[in-house]
Amino acid sequence: MTRFLWLLTLLGLTIGLWLLIDRPSTPQLVTEPPELLLRSGGQGTTMSNNQRAFSLSNRAMGLPERIRFAAGDEPFEHVFTSTDGLGDPNNGTSCLGCHINNGRSVPADGQVTAPGVILLINMGLDAEGQQIPHPELGLQLQDRGQQAEGTLTVNWEETSGTFPDGTPYSLRSPLVVVDGVDLGDAFTSLRVAPPVFGGGLLESIPSTELESGADPQDRNQDGISGRTAQTDAGIGRFGWKAQRPTIATFTQGAFEADFNLDFDLAAQHFGNDFLDDTSFYTSTVAVPALRQRTDPEVLAGAAWFVQVGCASCHNTTPWKTGENPVQALANQTIVPFTDLLLHDMGDNLADGLVQGNATGSEWRTPPLWGIGLTGVVGHEHYLHDGRARTPEEAILWHGGEAQVARDTYMSLAASDRALVLRFLAAL
Question: What residue ranges do the domains of the chain occupy?
Answer without folding.
Answer: 26-426
